[in-house]
Design brief:
Largest sheet: 8 strands, parallel, barrel
Strand order of the largest sheet: 11-12-15-16-19-20-21-22
Distance between the termini: 82 Å
Shape: elongated
Helix content: 10-25%
Number of strands: 32
CATH superfamily of the largest domain: Glycosidases
Structural class: alpha/beta
Low-confidence stretches: 589-594
Mean pLDDT: 93
Radius of gyration: 27 Å
């Protein structure tokens, strides 16, 4: 039976089911023709129907099919000039993914037909391929958006109350013995009661999921038997990746993702997505033609001005989306709004966010991208976190994003690592980072919570490996150990890697406790990488982007439960005491004055730090008084609450130090709350001006009133 065809509407873009039929709309400004291709199954090598799209409103091609229902597989063929030297790469032999597809049915089956040019041709990408790519392409899916959210909505947890947990959908649950094997590694596994209970007991308020947008696993990795495990290679900005679905590939992945969000919200846990809007998985001029490249290359990508055959590459992946163009900005904003309004996510972490800010060759903090987000009534209200750098000139932009944005604070990571590995670094910077990095954010009317503090992330050593390996061990990546950061700089923890030496093992344990304690007692927003709380190792691999196996997966059977309990205690201390999660800045940075300042800094002899100490000393120890009693706040029940006073002592020296406690004006007595040199902190009480022994490479946390 012939398919009924109606003109349809240009908006909304994508495939939209209205209960009776589906409207298809595609932006393709320079195209001369568009065909909508319908498929019965993902494995079909040819389309069951090919429909010429005749209606065009401005740059948008559209058609309405009344007999099409959710679950329908489709793709586009787009015709136009094939002039790579002018930036045009139209090739109607290539089946293309709808940029607005809400689901994608499968993954790429690598074949030469996926390229717009003839592989091996002496003319390279200037040649023209006539091979049909449909048999090797995943198909776009028409979905039914209906879902019972049960009054679910974004949680809106304030930044100062947030504990962010960076994790990978598959890696976090793939080896969990208490999760049904058939759903391990899926959205459903993240929503499983075992997972949620673990996160709640740990004290997590938000999970930050590494990319779940449908992505491309590179051909060169597939040929090595590897894969793009991390997923920073998006091809579908509206589609939850089918590889993490336990509910089918024709829309089940969308429902499963929504159910995950709903269950996490019920537990009070936000969902933040790591999103990659700076580039796509189509690569440079030698890459495949999968979607945007074949739909309208010049209207989506940054091309070299004087030779549009080539792509500007600020990301190291081959191409850069052109966020200066209105249709690209609309594409990104439509995607963000979709994940907020339809999928109920609570925020985003923007990969290589400096790339999105680039206008011409400079990073402009007031670019159109930020202006549009700032004025958008939906996007501006969720958590917006930037990875504030890219690989281009001037791309390191820590501290330079606009108000309303939080940032991964790379300077915090570097400073705290240097301090604990014993580098000669100024205490002034250490104090800045510990107190929220006011030097980076205060002048812009931002708060300490603009700083997302982290010591490890997915790209680098795990916490365990950070203190266990002096050099990377990326041999499994197949690049002769040349990828990833060149070295870890010595942590002076003895023999590298696994060892039976008790002294070395104890020092590594202490350094892990030191780093975690520093993270959770710093002002700002802490981000913990999944598995760091249980001593997860990648065997020294600091660039496991292509390792979808036991190197990357969290091995629950090998958990360090002692470290887990220590981390739980740290998080509970932070959550119970607003002194460690202030909403506003300390009044002096650093401060030297007398009386009950909100913060004061001390030398081992009990005297306050002087300007000379801050500016000239390379000392590795510091005492910090934090006035919690002056930190008045109102709890959720409306009751007025005052916090406790705290005294923190940091000692990065190898040897113990005797620290004289401040005079009684600060507190008459102190109780020891935490000591990282001990597996379990022994309760002790000290009076004012008493001397306390602080062991080498350790932190002591004292509290007033004392522990009863």
């Amino acid at each position: 039976m012939d398919q009924k065809i109606y003109p349809g509407k240009p908006y909304p873009l994508g495939a939209t089911w209205d209960g009776e039929g589906v409207n298809f709309a595609l932006f393709a400004d320079s195209a001369t023709g568009v065909e909508l291709c319908l498929f019965k199954n993902q494995d079909d090598e040819v389309e069951s129907q090919k429909i010429k799209v005749n209606e065009r409103t401005h740059q948008i091609w559209h058609v309405y099919l009344p007999d099409v229902k959710p679950g329908q597989l489709y793709g586009y063929r787009v015709d136009g000039p094939y002039e790579p030297q002018n930036g045009n790469r139209f090739n109607k032999n290539k089946l293309l993914i709808d940029p607005y597809a809400k689901a994608i049915s499968g993954v790429i089956d690598w074949h030469d037909a996926l390229y717009g040019y003839e592989i091996g041709s002496p003319d390279e990408d200037l040649s023209f391929s006539q091979m049909d790519s449909a048999p090797f392409m995943p198909k776009s899916v028409v979905i039914d958006p209906a879902f019972d959210w049960e009054n679910d909505k974004q949680l809106g947890t304030p930044y100062h109350q947030s504990i962010i947990y960076e994790t990978h959908v598959k890696g976090f649950t793939k080896m969990h013995p208490d999760i049904p094997e058939n759903i391990r590694g899926t959205y459903a596994a993240i929503a499983h009661p075992v997972t949620i209970e673990y996160l709640k007991q740990l004290g997590i308020t938000a999970i930050e999921l590494m990319p779940i947008h449908q992505f491309v696993s590179d051909r060169h990795l597939a040929e090595k038997g590897l894969t793009n495990y991390w997923g920073y290679n998006t091809i579908g900005f509206f589609a939850p990746d089918v590889r993490y679905s336990g509910s089918g590939s024709t829309g089940g992945q969308v429902t499963e993702f929504k159910q995950m969000v709903k269950e996490l919200h019920k537990a009070g846990i936000e969902v933040i997505l790591d999103v990659v809007y700076n580039h796509t998985g189509e690569g440079n001029q030698m890459g495949p033609t999968l979607s945007l490249k074949g739909i309208d290359n010049t209207c989506y990508y940054r091309l070299v001005d004087d030779d549009k055959r080539f792509y500007m590459d600020y990301t190291g992946t081959g191409n850069t989306l052109n966020a200066m163009l209105p249709n690209v900005l609309r594409y990104i904003m439509d995607s963000l709004r979709y994940w907020i309004t339809e999928m109920h996510v609570d925020g985003f972490r923007f990969d290589l966010a400096a790339t999105l800010a680039r206008e011409l060759h400079e990073v402009n903090r007031l670019s159109a991208f930020f202006d549009i987000i700032h004025q958008d009534p939906i996007i501006s209200q969720v958590k917006l976190i930037a990875e504030p750098w890219d690989i281009g000139d001037g791309g390191y932009q820590v501290g330079k994003f606009p108000p309303g944005w939080a940032e991964w604070n790379g300077k915090y990571r570097d400073c705290m690592r240097d301090y604990w590995r014993g580098a000669d670094s100024m205490l002034g910077e250490f104090a800045m980072r510990l107190t929220g990095s006011p030097d980076l954010y205060q002048d812009d009317y931002r708060k300490p919570t603009a700083s997302i503090n982290f010591l490890t992330a997915h790209d680098g050593f795990t916490l365990n490996d950070l203190v266990s390996y002096n050099d990377k061990h990326n041999e499994a990546n197949g690049e002769d150990n040349n990828d990833g950061e060149s070295n870890n700089r010595s942590w002076n923890c003895g023999a590298e890697g696994p060892t039976d030496d008790e002294v070395v093992l104890e020092l590594r344990k202490r350094q892990k406790r030191n780093l975690l304690t520093t993270l959770f007692l710093s002002q700002g927003v802490p981000m913990l990488v999944a598995g760091d709380e249980v001593g997860r190792t990648q065997g020294g691999n600091n660039n496991a982007y292509c390792q979808d196996n036991e190197i990357s997966w969290l091995n629950w059977a090998a958990n360090d439960n002692e470290l887990l309990e220590f981390t739980k205690k740290l998080i509970s201390i932070r959550q119970e005491h607003p002194a460690f999660r202030r909403r506003k800045w300390f009044k002096g940075q650093p401060i030297k004055g007398k009386g009950l300042e909100d913060v004061a800094w001390f030398l081992p002899d009990g005297s306050e730090m002087s300007d000379d100490n801050w500016n000239n000393d390379f000392a590795k120890s510091l005492g910090i008084f934090m006035n919690g009693k002056g930190l008045h706040y109102v709890d959720p029940k409306g009751e007025e609450v005052y916090d406790d006073n705290f005294y923190l002592i940091f000692n990065a020296h190898d040897e113990p130090l005797d620290y004289k406690l401040p005079e009684k004006i600060y507190s008459k007595e102190w109780g020891k709350l935490l000591d990282t040199s001990e597996d379990k902190t022994e309760e002790q009480v000290f009076g004012d001006s008493d001397t306390i022994k602080v062991n080498g490479r350790s932190i002591v946390l004292l509290k007033h009133p004392i522990i009863k």
